[in-house]
């Protein structure tokens, strides 16, 4: 029974890995690429600076206003009869706004600082420093580094997550300040981090001599880092290393976790760059409008069909907040439900993944990440 259970578990985890790498990640990247190019083609195409400023100003402004009223909006949507449909519409609109905000700020920084290695290094360092100081380093991670499915997660738990710098949820100034920090500071930090890292990865892979070769190298590098981090997280979260108060000093725990996120961030950016540039080469390069439309709508259709649209979202429309007592950075999510059950001869084995929760009645917080439960009838 145990052998069969372990075999089933390993098979499901392998399928999850394949699904994330070869369907979910390409779909998300293609949506972002297609949407980005649609803005290039139709938002003041004759003036890149005006296009960037208008796109960034409008998108950041709208996201900020939505974030200020996020709790009221979620309450309304959760109580609506067409809850699922309305959340999907909101996810789609927020995804477009996210792309517009990223494109706008990215292009503005490009214009004023150029694509030099100095600019890349400064953006990379400042961006990571911002999210590190605000305890939101996981915000730099996108698919494949972290994934989620609407089948297992309520959309209201993922979208429009706000960093609560001020704890009062009722005061108007608290809402405004928390939303400002989430949208304009954390959001900008993540974007400039990605820009700097993107240029660094490109400088490493571009000497290959062709866009195709450099894209394959970037994709291979990104996926190799992701797979290494995937197995590393499995080990760390299933071992006793999470009990920092027993086995690790708090400082060591924090260092290991943040280092893991930093490494994974490189892998995620490299994989995105590889897929993005491969699509530039192969997805109707002579028909830019059709290529952008196909990337946008086909990818959106695939993600909504497989209930993976939540993976389209990023800062500034949400952020990933770490708990000081938890190893949140090692959690890479699961798109497929990893569960194996067998009821035979009075036995029931199940494996579940849980997000960490703090136990208020205990002197320490425990993470129940992977447990095998045996029940006798």
UniProtKB/TrEMBL annotation:
The chain crosses the membrane at residues 14-32, 48-69, 89-109, 115-134, 176-196, 216-238, 259-276, 288-306. It comes from the Eukaryota. The keyword Transmembrane applies. Pfam families: Fuseless. Keywords: Membrane, Transmembrane, Transmembrane helix. InterPro entries: Fuseless. The keyword Disulfide bond does not apply. PANTHER family: FUSELESS, ISOFORM A. This is Transmembrane protein. The lineage of its organism: Eukaryota, Metazoa, Cnidaria, Anthozoa, Hexacorallia.
């Amino acid at each position: 029974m145990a052998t069969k259970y372990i075999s089933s578990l390993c098979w499901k985890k392998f399928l999850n890995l394949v699904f994330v790498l070869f369907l979910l990640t390409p779909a998300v990247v293609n949506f972002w690429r297609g949407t980005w190019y649609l803005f290039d083609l139709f938002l003041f195409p004759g003036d890149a600076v005006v296009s960037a400023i208008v796109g960034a100003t409008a998108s950041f402004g709208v996201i900020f206003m939505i974030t200020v009223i996020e709790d009221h909006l979620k309450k309304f949507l959760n109580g609506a009869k067409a809850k699922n449909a309305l959340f999907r519409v909101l996810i789609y609109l927020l995804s477009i706004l996210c792309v517009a905000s990223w494109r706008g700020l990215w292009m503005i920084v490009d214009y004023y600082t150029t694509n030099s290695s100095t600019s890349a290094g400064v953006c990379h360092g400042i961006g990571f420093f911002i999210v590190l100081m605000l305890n939101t380093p996981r915000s730099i991670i996108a698919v494949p580094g972290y994934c989620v499915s609407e089948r297992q997660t309520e959309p209201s738990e993922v979208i429009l997550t706000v960093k609560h710098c001020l704890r009062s949820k009722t005061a108007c100034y608290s809402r405004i300040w928390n939303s400002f920090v989430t949208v304009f500071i954390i959001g900008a930090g993540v974007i400039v981090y990605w820009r700097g890292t993107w240029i660094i990865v490109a400088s490493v892979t571009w000497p290959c001599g062709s866009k195709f070769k450099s894209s394959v190298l970037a994709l291979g590098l990104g996926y190799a880092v992701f797979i290494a981090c995937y197995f590393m997280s499995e080990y760390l979260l299933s071992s006793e290393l999470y009990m920092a108060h027993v086995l690790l000093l708090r400082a060591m725990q924090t260092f290991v976790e943040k280092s893991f996120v930093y490494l994974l961030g490189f892998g995620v950016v490299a994989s995105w760059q590889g897929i993005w540039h491969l699509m530039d080469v192969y997805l109707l390069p002579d028909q830019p409008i059709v290529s952008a439309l196909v990337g946008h709508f086909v990818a959106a259709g695939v993600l909504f069909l497989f209930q993976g649209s939540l993976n389209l979202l990023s800062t500034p429309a949400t952020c990933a907040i770490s708990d000081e007592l938890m190893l949140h950075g090692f959690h890479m999510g699961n798109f497929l439900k990893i569960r194996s059950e067998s009821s035979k001869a009075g036995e029931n084995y199940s494996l579940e993944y849980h997000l960490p929760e703090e136990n208020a009645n205990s002197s320490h917080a425990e993470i129940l990440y992977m447990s095998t439960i045996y029940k006798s009838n």
